[in-house]
Write a structure and sequence with these properties.
With 234 residues, the chain is α/β, with parallel strands linked by helices. Helices cover 41% and strands 14% of the residues. The protein has a five-stranded mixed beta sheet with strand order 2-1-3-4-5, with helices on both faces. The protein is globular and about 55 Å long.
Length: 234
């Protein structure tokens, strides 16, 4: 389980995030949080229209990245095979620092990975990406409704989703009467809140305007992302 206190600032030595651009010149890697979000939003728009640019995938780009990386966003999302970050945001090599777990559940190694992307690699935006028809949310709902708990370490995933939706049923409402979309939405919002609350370095980066955290929900059928929660200026 996550510790009750916030995580301390990492002690890594950060390399200088120079103004490197993608091979097609589309996305500079010294961006504000708002500019990083615009780049992701425009990439998703291309994906939805079926007009993907497939940036940062050339031979030259591979060579450029062999020495160092300067991703412009940290993408923390669900491991679901239908929600591949670089594809749905039409990005390429070196553009996104991706961290994925089933149900986008947090633990200390996940938070450390996200802190690395921001504090060391200099990414100005952290995205928490959820989606509809999430199996982890459905399993957590089943556990609260009738006590069905999966075997093995899958239970650890469910245990970390349950706190996100408990607040919706604290008043005595039957969780089975709440739409799955509402439960998934709350899980994304709660994950954003937890991420900022547990990490001192992320909270400071947001307060100083160096970074923002945005929670997004992805719709499997049409490929669109919608904003669920924002911390910072985007």
């Amino acid at each position: 389980m996550l510790p009750p206190e916030r995580r301390s600032r990492p002690s890594w030595t950060a390399t200088c995030a120079c103004a490197v651009t993608c091979d097609d010149g589309d996305v500079p890697h010294t961006l504000t949080p708002a500019e990083a979000w615009t780049a992701l939003r425009e990439g998703n728009d291309r994906f939805v229209r079926g007009e993907m640019a497939h940036p940062s995938q050339s031979i030259e780009r591979r060579s450029e990245l062999s020495a160092e990386q300067h991703p412009f966003a940290v993408l923390f999302g669900c491991s679901d095979s239908r929600v591949a970050a670089e594809i749905i945001f039409d990005q390429g090599l070196g553009d996104l620092f991706v961290v994925r777990t089933a149900g986008h559940v947090l633990d200390t190694t996940v938070i450390g990975s996200i802190e690395y992307g921001v504090s060391v690699l200099g990414a100005p935006l952290v995205v928490v990406l959820g989606h509809d028809s999430c199996g982890a949310v459905a399993a957590a709902t089943a556990a609260l409704t009738d006590g069905q708990v999966p075997a093995g370490f899958v239970r650890a995933v469910v245990d970390r989703v349950i706190p996100s939706i408990v607040g919706l049923v604290s008043s005595g409402q039957d969780v089975s009467t709440i739409e799955a979309a509402a439960l998934g939405h709350e899980h994304v919002r709660h994950t954003v809140t937890m991420l900022q609350g547990y990490s001192v370095s992320l909270a400071e980066a947001v307060a100083e305007g160096r970074c923002a955290i945005i929670g997004l929900e992805y719709t499997l059928a049409d490929g669109k992302v919608q904003v669920a929660e924002v911390v910072g200026q985007v």
